[in-house]
Amino acid sequence: MDAATPGGAIRRARSHGSVTKASDLLVAALENEGVGCIFAIPGEENLDVLESLRHSKIKLVLTRHEQAAGFMAATCGRLTGRAGVCLTTLGPGALNLTTAAAYAHLGAMPMVMITGQKAIRSSRQARFQIVDIVATMRPLTKMATQIVAAQSIPTLVRDAFRVAQQERPGPVHLELPEDIAADDAEAEIIPRHAVELPVAPAAAIERAAAMIMTASEGAELKGWVYILMQEFR
């Protein structure tokens, strides 16, 4: 099947014979968004995604805690303007992302969080470790949704990155249940498009510059990174 560069023609996800797994669709959609690395904690519920990542060009960076994965993804988004990506399992592990989600939400940092979940069509483990992560993430993100059909993955991934990166940037959450990740599916990958960020009118910029130039007392704003650099010189 044809492959396309980001912004080029629509392409289809990698397939094994005539069948493509949903996890392959997810990874192909992430590659289409230009994702170079994912900060992750492996687990049973994301094994299909990890196997698909093994055959991709995306670098998997393992962390010792989900919160660290979230902070690293958020910081990547802050420094590059492109959504950083982190991957965790379900339940308590996914809940560890909430602090990083709040951090990214308050700091306007684009980030896409992908969490696993038990099978939604049938569960042999009853309610073991099942927490409604989507509902938990809604107040802390710009968008939180569960993937319930493999064919919808390209659309949801494209929407997640669009929402995360457009003004005001922030975190987005996608939940991928393990039975959906293992489904056979084939769908077209949606080409990404440039995010148009709003620009202040020239008159507003000139007004702000005039206020600064005529101010009787100067004001200096420094970020925490700059302050730390000065402290440890």
In brief:
With 233 residues, the protein is α/β, with parallel strands linked by helices. 39% of the residues lie in helices and 15% in strands.
Structural notes for this entry:
The protein is α/β, with parallel strands linked by helices and 233 residues long. The chain folds into 2 domains: 11-189, Rossmann fold (3-Layer(aba) Sandwich), CATH 3.40.50.970; 202-231, no CATH class. 39% of the residues lie in helices and 15% in strands. It is built from 10 helices and 8 strands. The chain has helices spanning 22-32, 47-54, 66-80, 91-95, 98-107, 133-137, 153-165, 178-181, 202-213, 224-231; strands spanning 11-12, 37-40, 59-62, 84-88, 111-117, 143-146, 171-177, 188-189. It has a 6-stranded parallel β-sheet, with helices on both faces. Strands 1-8 form a two-stranded antiparallel sheet. Helix 1 packs across helix 2 and helix 1 runs parallel beside helix 7. It is elongated. The termini are far apart. The model is unreliable at 1-11 and 14-19 (pLDDT under 50).
CATH architecture of the largest domain: 3-Layer(aba) Sandwich
Helicity level = 25-40%
Output the CATH class name of the largest domain: Alpha Beta
Low-confidence stretches: 1-11, 14-19
Average pLDDT confidence is 86
User: What's the SSE pattern?
Assistant: EHEHEHEHHEHEHEHEHH
Number of domains: 2
Helix/strand class:
alpha/beta
CATH fold name of the largest domain: Rossmann fold
Total helices: the number is 10
Report Rg. Answer: 20 Å
For the sheet with most strands, the description reads: 6 strands, parallel
Give the overall shape.
elongated
* CATH 4th-level superfamily of the largest domain: Thiamin diphosphate (ThDP)-binding fold, Pyr/PP domains
What is the number of strand segments? Answer: 8
**SS strand fraction:** 15-25%
Query: How many angstroms does the end-to-end distance come to?
Result: 53 Å
